[in-house]
Design a protein that fits this description.
- This protein is of the alpha+beta class and about 230 residues long.
- The protein contains seven helices and nine strands.
- A three-stranded antiparallel beta sheet has the order 4-5-8. The protein has a two-stranded antiparallel sheet with strand order 1-2. A two-stranded antiparallel ribbon has the order 3-6.
- A hairpin with a 2-residue loop joins strand 1 and strand 2.
- The radius of gyration is 20 Å and the shape is globular.
């Protein structure tokens, strides 16, 4: 609501009703960035707590320490977030705010913003698949800096709306199909299984291959799911 008011005040018009924006220097813009940072901090804390709970459960079941089972964190990153970065615009380096929606950073090897541990290979890019499909780890490239402000996709993207998926799939059939593939499913809301089944999403392998062919990221690792927890 505040963004809508700010757009009218600044006489900004967009071609999609679902989009909104405000000048970065405006009070509304600053409030948005502060709220976004709080949400990102919550997400980091939430993932850390879930990881700690998973380590505790594995220790109880297997009677081994998380260290022995190599359950350390490899990398963590926020998606759908805006960051101030330096990019070349019209032939000169400028400080800009890059807001990645449906995308994530893919900085090339040697970039100063990449953690030192991974600086030699490029930014790790985590591409989560849907519930029944594989996920991927990619690395950033120079091509992304030239073409997409150092960005690549962060997932396959939906092919069906949630309502369309509910009409096309049932939670029972989705769960049964995943069990056939050796994937165990746990959901706090059965409806989510139908809403977010693999049939509702684009082919993640095709999306990843497209990003590699476009030169905005490089394929490194393919991961197969064995357990899915939703809600």
């Amino acid at each position: 609501l505040e963004l809508d008011k700010e757009m009218k005040k600044s006489k900004i018009s967009l071609n999609d009703r679902q989009l909104a924006c405000a000048k970065i220097s405006s009070p509304v813009g600053q409030n948005y960035l502060a709220a976004m940072a709080s949400a990102a901090n919550f997400a980091f804390c939430n993932r850390s707590m879930m990881a700690a709970a998973a380590r505790k459960a594995f220790t109880a079941v297997f009677s081994r320490s998380p260290k022995d089972m190599e359950m350390h964190q490899v990398y963590d990153v926020c998606h759908n977030i805006a960051k101030f970065e330096d990019h070349e615009v019209d032939g000169e380096t400028r400080r800009v705010l890059v807001h990645r929606k449906g995308a994530t950073r893919a900085f090339p090897p040697g970039h100063s913003c990449i953690p030192e541990k991974y600086r030699g290979i490029g930014q790790p890019v985590i591409i989560g698949g849907s519930m029944g499909t594989c996920s991927y780890v990619l690395t950033g490239t120079e091509g992304s800096m030239r073409q997409t402000f150092g960005s690549t996709c962060h997932g396959a993207g939906r092919e069906m709306s949630r309502s369309a998926a509910l009409k096309s799939f049932t939670s029972g059939s989705v769960k049964a199909e995943m069990l056939k593939q050796g994937i165990y499913v746990k959901s706090g809301d059965a409806k989510l299984l139908a809403e977010e089944c693999c049939g509702a999403y684009k082919d993640v392998t095709q999306v990843v291959n497209t990003c590699q062919e476009a030169g905005i990221s490089r394929l490194c690792v393919r991961l197969r799911p064995i357990v899915v927890i939703k809600g």
